[in-house]
Design a protein that fits this description.
Layout lengths: L14 H35 L3 H29 L1 H4 L2 H12 L6 H27 L4 H32 L4 H7 L1 H11 L7 H6 L3 H12 L19 H32 L1 H7 L5 H28 L1 H21 L5 H28 L6 H29 L2 H22 L8 H5 L3
Helix pairs in contact: 1-2, 1-5, 1-6, 1-8, 2-5, 2-16, 4-5, 4-8, 5-15, 5-16, 6-7, 6-13, 6-15, 11-15, 11-16, 11-17, 12-13, 13-14, 13-15, 14-15, 14-17, 15-16
Keywords: Membrane, Transmembrane, Transmembrane helix, Transport
Membrane topology: Multi-pass membrane protein
Protein name: Permease of the major facilitator superfamily
């Protein structure tokens, strides 16, 4: 049999790649759903449990705190035990913790369950993205990883739509059904992932060449082999920290900084969407339907970014995303007493333009690190970025109560523009590189 000279990173996309995108992207959909669902019912939960502003902020931030621990854990588990096994941990935790929310009776209990959900989300980020990127051809790597962000916002939009339907048709305790509804999407995700193979790059990094060869033939065809995998054949066992000292520290700083600056305003908005819109003088249905409309614009922004990522390039997209979304937040601070239509236009502008930075939070981390530490690096980026996001989310009700909506919007704008500075200083361009070249320091 003649071995083709084509690298597996240059082959056409096939049915397996499409199914794997769905399997990995399903995790992003569930992430968006479970993280955003609390924002739908925060008003009802606050009334039912008589929550203080302290507990409102803590419950809203609890999942983000869980992500901090889950990111480290998921990265370490995936690098040590493989992508395939860890691929099922998140869905199991989603189902168990989401179902338990139906019977929760205290703020402490809800905090604990949201924390567990956050751990599951943190585990999802490194394993789902690394497994996908390690199979994808280079031409489709950026757009397919970006698709995961679209699915995150689609999950968030679904949470608001489903949540509003249940709240309007349910009784006094309808918020319990809203929170527990995530068990359904978690179960679908678990079933969808059955039959997923292990990453041949991870197998090769562990010296399991025969298994890696079998997966390559299974996915790409019997004529392909390890010779078609553009990966170093002889590997040294390197720890994450030794690789940081060898030159990856600057990349870790960039990933953590831009990721943090891109997610702080987004998570704060999703946790308190209706509250923020009400503070911007959108009342009643304006606030409820405005939340759904803005979420759909987030999805549209990610769709546009996905279409342009290989044309515009990673670096240029990140710079423009931070610039224009930051200016929109400044506008919300300056014109916070304006008409409902202007507020929605400015919020919609932010939602559209931040899509570029959002899709790159999954693209850059997976491209800039080698297989040995890819999931751990993504996990570290996930975890560290959520420190700021958790603090920012916790401070939203405190800031609104103590300082008002204008300073809160100005603070979000400053965070976004700091992300712009990091993009200008450190963002590389990787769109034309294969995975090994993108992760190389030379």
């Amino acid at each position: 049999m003649t071995i083709p000279s084509t690298s597996v990173e240059d082959v056409p996309i096939n049915g397996f790649h499409k199914l794997l995108t769905l399997r990995s992207g399903g995790g992003s959909f569930v992430d968006g759903y479970v993280l955003s669902i609390i924002g739908v019912v925060m008003v009802q939960v606050t009334e039912a449990m008589s929550l203080s502003s302290f507990w409102q902020g803590l419950i809203a931030a609890s999942a983000l705190i869980g992500i901090f621990f889950g990111g480290f854990l998921g990265g370490w588990l995936s690098d040590r035990f493989g992508r395939k096994r860890v691929f099922f941990v998140g869905p199991i935790l989603f189902m168990l913790a989401s179902l338990a929310q139906y019977w929760v009776e205290s703020a402490q209990g809800l905090f604990a369950l949201r924390f567990i959900i956050g751990v599951a989300v943190g585990i999802e980020y490194p394993v789902a993205t690394a497994l996908l990127v390690e199979f994808l051809p280079r031409k489709y790597r950026g757009p397919r990883l970006a698709t995961l962000t679209i699915l995150w916002f689609a999950g968030a939009a679904a949470a608001y739509v489903v949540g509003e339907i249940i709240l309007r048709s349910g009784g006094q305790d309808a918020w319990r059904l809203v929170l527990a509804s995530a068990v359904v999407v978690g179960a679908v995700l678990f079933a969808l992932r059955l039959g997923t193979p292990e990453s041949p790059r991870w197998l090769l990094s562990k010296g399991r060449e025969a298994e890696a060869e079998r997966v390559i033939r299974q996915v790409y065809g019997p004529e392909f082999s390890l010779r078609n995998l553009p990966e170093q054949r002889e590997r040294k066992t390197l720890s994450f920290w030794s690789l940081l000292h060898s030159g990856y520290g600057k990349r870790m700083l960039f990933v953590t900084a831009f990721w943090t600056c891109s997610v702080i305003p987004v998570f704060a908005v999703y946790a308190f969407a209706t509250t923020v819109l009400q503070a911007l003088n959108l009342k009643g249905d304006w606030a409820s339907f405005g939340s759904v409309a803005i979420t759909l614009l987030f999805v549209l922004g990610c769709v546009i970014a996905t279409r342009l990522i290989n044309t515009v390039g990673r670096r240029s997209m990140l710079i423009h995303s931070f610039l224009w979304s930051g200016l929109a937040l400044l506008g919300l601070g300056a014109y916070h007493t304006a008409s409902e239509s202007l507020i929605l236009v400015l919020f919609g502008t932010y939602a559209l333009f931040i899509g570029g930075a959002q899709v790159l939070t999954l693209v850059y981390p997976n491209e800039l690190f080698p297989t040995e530490i890819r999931t751990f690096a993504v996990g570290v980026g996930t975890s560290l970025s959520r420190i700021g996001a958790a603090v920012g989310t916790y401070l939203v009700p405190v800031s609104l109560q103590s300082f008002g909506i204008a300073p809160t919007m100005y603070a979000a704008a400053i965070v976004t523009l700091v992300g712009l500075l990091f993009a200008l200083a450190l963002a590389p361009e990787t769109r034309s590189l294969n995975l090994q070249q993108a992760a190389s320091l030379t």
